[in-house]
Amino acid sequence: MTGPPAAASPTGGAAASRPRPADEEGQPDPEEKGPLRRCVATRESLPKERMIRFVLGPGRELVPDLSERLPGRGMWLSARRDVLEAAVKRGAFARASRGQVHPPPDLSMRIEAGLRLRVRDLVGFARRAGQAVCGFQQAREWLQAERAGVVVQASDGSANERARLVGARGVPVVAALTAAELGGIFGRDHAVHVAVAKGRLAQEIAREAARLGGFTSAVESLRG
């Protein structure tokens, strides 16, 4: 005696109802929908803002897609250097792509440099939009007026002076760029303190710096 026929799929057959391929833990890979992505190394689901997307190039080389715009099937990884190193060593990208993968030997350095460049570009956008000021006094005025959404300080500046500016205010503090890099954005030889107005650009700076923080000590948050 045979059982009931399989339910027809929207495409007219039972094939569409087959389960997706399982990962190494026997669980189906989740669809890349919604705000969460699964890390190919830790299998932990995290917000995209805390992850880095990778795609494969024409020769199956591993390419970090920091802007999350490159074509191809994305593979997501927690934005941490130790997780990246473990993923490469254990072949997590090869398993996720079901084939050979060629990660460049300087992959972590490329990611760090790319994220630092994204922070610099975003601060530049804020300056050109009139949403950023530099200098201790101007930055302090924006903080006192609760106008600042993020403070960007020179990574090679005085730690005591940086702490004296922000105090105990609950404002994200990004220390990803040197004084010379910050100064170049504002047409100066150097700058130590930059305040960015609340809004999308400040949020993007904090996000990129947080991802960079997984590869360097780039972000600290002082809470009141």
From TrEMBL:
Pfam families: YlxR. Residues 37-107 form the YlxR domain. Residues 1-17 have a biased composition (Low complexity). InterPro entries: Ribosomal_eL30-like_sf (IPR029064), YlxR (IPR037465), YlxR-like_sf (IPR035931), YlxR_dom (IPR007393). Residues 1-37 are annotated as: Disordered. This is RNA-binding protein. It comes from Roseomonas elaeocarpi.
